[in-house]
Amino acid sequence: MSVWRMLKIEANAIVESLEVQPIEALKEAPEVIENIRLRHADLCHVISRANQFLSHILAAFYGTGMTCILLVIHGLINNEFTIADLVNMGSLSFSFVFYLVVITTTGAALNMKMHEPVDFLFRLDVQRMTGKGTEIVSTFLSRLQGAPIGFHVYNLFTVDTSTVMMICGTILTYVLVIVQFKPGANVQCCASSSTDQALPVTLANTQYPAYANTTDIET
């Protein structure tokens, strides 16, 4: 977590350096933008190097954590847990949920901060800048609008705000599937269908006894 906190602080410093500089000063001094761009590029390089070993940790947390959470949900819906199992699995799931929330929120905040300078660059009037300044701004924008910047899990997905929706959608889909295919629901469905089939015959025998007797004789 200390690595993430350090990177987030540096990303905040880059954004604050853009906020402190007036827009007019940035137009007249492209060297300021170049210095900020170089700091941003260095931070992107640090994140890329950190991903080489953090991706394994993220994969372990997301894979193990989601599996544990889904197993707990399955056991709760089907009433398969004893009190002791519920306490143990509940505490374990709470730990995984806590770490997943911390990792996801920190990664999403870092991703947002790393892409935030694009708002300031769009406010610059490049027509009033020199050719060198325009080239610097164009290079900076191409990096900010390119591949997502942040921590990723084996290049499968980058930890950003969409990761929250992905986790919530996975859990909700699993809950709906488990509820739909719950064994008790199938038994009730079969019982209700058999009752519906027997109901017309019973009503016919009750309302038309003579017809019912004739049918029995013919049979």
Automatic annotation (TrEMBL):
The entry's keywords: Membrane, Receptor, Transmembrane, Transmembrane helix
Cellular component, GO, one term: membrane
Membrane topology of this protein: Multi-pass membrane protein
A single GO BP: sensory perception of taste
Spans traversing the lipid bilayer: 57-77, 89-110
Name of the protein described by the UniProt record: Gustatory receptor
Coiled coil location: none
Keyword 4Fe-4S: no
PANTHER family in alphabetical order: GUSTATORY RECEPTOR, GUSTATORY RECEPTOR 5A FOR TREHALOSE-RELATED
Subcellular location: Membrane
Gene Ontology molecular function: any one: signaling receptor activity
Highest taxon of source: Eukaryota
The UniProt record lists the keyword Transmembrane: yes
